[in-house]
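Why do we care about 3D structure at all? Because function follows from shape, and shape follows, mostly, from sequence. That is the central idea of this module. The next example makes it concrete: a single protein chain, its amino acid sequence, and then its structure expressed as tokens.
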Amino acid sequence: MSFYMLMQKKMKIILAVLLGFGSLGGITTAQSHAGESTYDFLTLTSTAKGAALGGNQVGLSNGDINMMLSNPAALNRGLDKAATINIAPYVSGITRGYAAYAHDLGHFGTVGLGIQSINYGSFDRVDEFNNLSGTFSAAEYAIMLNYSKQLTPNLTAGLAFKPILSYFESYSSYGLAVDLGLMHSTSDSLFSAGITIKNIGSQLTTYTGTYAPLPFDVQIGMSRKLAHAPFRISLTAQDLFDWNTKYTVTDGNGEELVDAGVKGNAFNAIMRHMVIGVEFLPFDNFYIAAGYNHRMRLDMVYEEKTSTVGFSWGFGMKLNRFNIAYGSTGYHLNGGSNLFSITTNINRF
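And the structure:
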């Protein structure tokens, strides 16, 4: 098959997926602006490698099971019997986590099982008269049933089926979401590109009887490793169905600031959708990574003291049978988020 014919075939597959998404519009709720959806924990960075590279890279295919959280098509046959655990202690006793395992089924494809979680900790139950009546907890979980299939030697399709449980004190909600993804990788492993459609679905039960949309998104990314230098550059465009990325906040007088999140010039309007990641790869078993998220910086920076809000970094290394990774993201002046990851492969034991 010629290169031209192969590219035609790949484009037809991509178009089929996108058209198929259009037919799913009936099971999704109306488009929402930032901050107006439910189950927003699904958009948080829950892996050390992802955090170090700016929070999200959907076009990176580097044989790391953690990347299937960003794009289900990053799951491939090379991840057979790979397992990972990620933990992210955060402020005020909040903890995020992600764990996953993959198994190859040969010609039938590759399956993965994962869980993404956020635990908000324990709270005192106090009435309006300041009377204490015990404690309560809050947490959210998404079970991730992943499947991927290699369509051509260079193209993989994947999906993630995600039942969701969320509870806050006596209020709870169940939901269901699906992620779809495609990943193209060159034979020399120097270039990869991906597209993913995230969180197609709906609440099945609500907290108080009112349905809210899921954080639906379409994301496109690519990654390029330099042929003669130990660097890899990754770029992802996200929030593509919410170009203005508006959200509503109120000032001290209760007046709505409906244009919050829109910073006026074309550069910021474009860069708010971009996540940039760079890796330094001096050895096969060691890397240093850095990332930049422009939207995070604009939304959370304190103008009198900008600090490193929006920047991230991390590293990873192989120690015996385990790969250890660390990622750090600067959210605000008061602190950031530290993520830790342990990955291994059962075949090594």
